């Protein structure tokens, strides 16, 4: 399944409904959200520069993305 350029990190929501993929290319700098039921991208979320990893809060309410070149975390 095509996502943004240079996918590097992936996390699955605890209920299994969505997958979050960090796309680390400077032309992307976003997270692709994939619906696992339809295997389709349902959202693209722009974050900081060079997003490298993503973690999901155990209750599934928030995703945390580490942005390596921005030196910050997107929530």
From TrEMBL:
<dbReference type="InterPro" id="IPR051200">
    <property type="entry name" value="Host-pathogen_enzymatic-act"/>
</dbReference>
<dbReference type="InterPro" id="IPR019405">
    <property type="entry name" value="Lactonase_7-beta_prop"/>
</dbReference>
<dbReference type="InterPro" id="IPR015943">
    <property type="entry name" value="WD40/YVTN_repeat-like_dom_sf"/>
</dbReference>
<protein>
    <recommendedName>
        <fullName>PQQ-dependent protein</fullName>
    </recommendedName>
</protein>
<dbReference type="InterPro" id="IPR011045">
    <property type="entry name" value="N2O_reductase_N"/>
</dbReference>
<dbReference type="InterPro" id="IPR011964">
    <property type="entry name" value="YVTN_b-propeller_repeat"/>
</dbReference>
<dbReference type="Pfam" id="PF10282">
    <property type="entry name" value="Lactonase"/>
</dbReference>
């Amino acid at each position: 399944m095509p996502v943004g350029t240079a996918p590097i990190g992936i996390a699955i929501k605890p209920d299994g409904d969505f997958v979050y993929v960090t796309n680390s290319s400077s032309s992307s700098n976003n997270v692709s959200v994939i619906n696992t039921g339809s295997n389709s991208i349902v959202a693209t979320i722009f974050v900081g520069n060079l997003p490298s990893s993503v973690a999901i809060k155990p209750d599934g309410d928030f995703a945390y993305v580490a942005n390596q070149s921005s030196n910050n975390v997107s929530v």
